[in-house]
Design a protein that fits this description.
The chain is of the alpha/beta class and about 575 residues long. Helices cover about 10% and strands about 15% of the residues. The chain has helices at about 10-35, 45-60, 210-215, 355-370, 395-400; strands at about 35-40, 60, 80-85, 90-95, 105-110, 120-125, 145-150, 170-175, 195-200, 225, 245-250, 270-275, 280, 295, 300-305, 320, 345, 380-385, 390, 405-410, 415, 430-435, 440, 440-445, 455-460, 465, 480, 505, 525-530, 535-540, 545-550, 555, 570, 575. A hairpin with a 5-residue loop joins strand 3 and strand 4 (about 90-95).
Length: about 575
Amino acid sequence: MCALKSSSLMELYMKGMVVPLLYVLFNIIATKFDCCIGHSPKALCRKEEREALLSFKRGIYDPSNRLSSWTNEECCNWKGVHCHNTTGHVLKLNLQWDLNQDQGFLGGEISSSLLDLKHLHHLDLSYNKFGGLHIPKFFGSLSNLKYLDLSHAGFSGVIPDELGNLSKLHYLDIEESHPDLNAKDLEWISGLISLKFLDMTGVDLSKASNWLQVMNKLHSLSVLLLCSCELPAIGPLPHVNFSSLLTLDLSFNDLSSSSFDWFADLSSLTALNLEYSQIHGLIPSSLRNLTSLGFLDICGNNFAPPIPNWLYHITALEYLDLGLLGFESNNFHGIGNLTSLIHLDLSYNALDQVEIFRALGNLCSFQLSKFSYYRLGKSLMFFSVRGNQLSGSIPDSILEECRSLVHLDFSENQLSGQIPLSLGGISSLHYLNIGNNFFKGIMSEKHFANLTSLEELYATPNLFAWQVSSNWTPPFQLRKLCLADCFVGPQFPAWLQTQKYLEELRLQNTGISSAIPAWFWTTSCDVVDLSQNQIIGVIPRTHYSSRVYLGSNNFTGPLPQISSDVTELILSNNLFSGSLSPML
């Protein structure tokens, strides 16, 4: 559940801006160790530690032979092993499965021989597949560990209390390791007196009724991530001890009967995520004291209006998600005061006044002013009003002022009129969605003049016609294009031949009545939907995409031979002739 926004700017903010503050703290402490870590020729492998590593390797399932370097005498040069440059002691064991390097996963059993690595302070087994293995209790005896990452590694069962013996641990990540990973009691965490980072996302904590009281004992804790943990309701907290907290994520839990008064004492908090937490009533007034907040996500809750004025005075806010609250336009009058915003999501409310656009234009105008020179180039990158009730036309001023936008979503409204030509000036735009509106007129090459970064374009359905020259070469390379129910024909768009990275193409019901050119049949889109047109010609024997929808056209000739790569194929309502044998 917590991965719903894994590719969004939320994750970029949480892990790219806030969490590094923790890493800085951790690295300052670890520097005296890390400066001595390496594969230097001076590092002489300790015999007993080499034997411990080989014993560990014997229990590991390694189908891609990732540990093939673990054979020679010098274990300090083995992949994933980092030693002290002078003593040769193993200090760091990094066996994370790195998808970017196309390495295979590790699995199998974890040998207690790791206990012979008595100087080990960094252990990373994340993103492997240990197939439901329980977290070994002996990990709690690795007394010098400062960093332990078991996230997404397939561990299940009850988290062993023995981990509470790791009094030197600064970083613990067991995020979404396995659906059955759980903790019945969290008292063991109180032993982690040096802990600064804790991620238990996806761990079942439904029986850990003492979770908040235990976390409150961790005076040094800076980052606490408990998304989708089935947390019990939060009761009152008389005194807040973990006031050094910078990041708190309680999203995707049921906090409907909870008390939030203790938030008022988290004055250092810079990021708070309460997304989909089933909170009722007014937005907690205790949040007004969090004047350092740069990230606030309260979308998908059952808050009652209004949005309090004090929220618009938290001027440090850079990421604000007020989506899925069902609030009307008059609740958002103060948005223009939040001049530090980089990400603003107002999706699925009841906005019906285009004044919200003017407030946005004013915000962008302020960000471009000389006064904002000291903001180090920060400006609005993400804006969404998807799923509201906005009508009328989009003022030119918004798109003229907001030239730093990366993600722009006006979809599922009742917007009309022509699409402003100033859209073509947003060279940073990667994602554009204007679908499910009533835009009319012509969308031409001028609308895309400088959209050199565009990767995703969604415009279905609308009332405008797509009109570009037959020899147009777009300035962008799209990954996804959806123009369904817009007029694109009668000719098949020749400019698509320039798009080398297209993964998804949806042009159903777009008035195309020509034949499909031969070059198109060699493309490797994952999804192709050209249904409900009047396309003519024969479908050749060729390589197809995974999902192909060509129904309700005028294709003739024999049925095509089907590639084994195709998982979905619709050819109904065409004019094919001959045998069914190519389909068998």
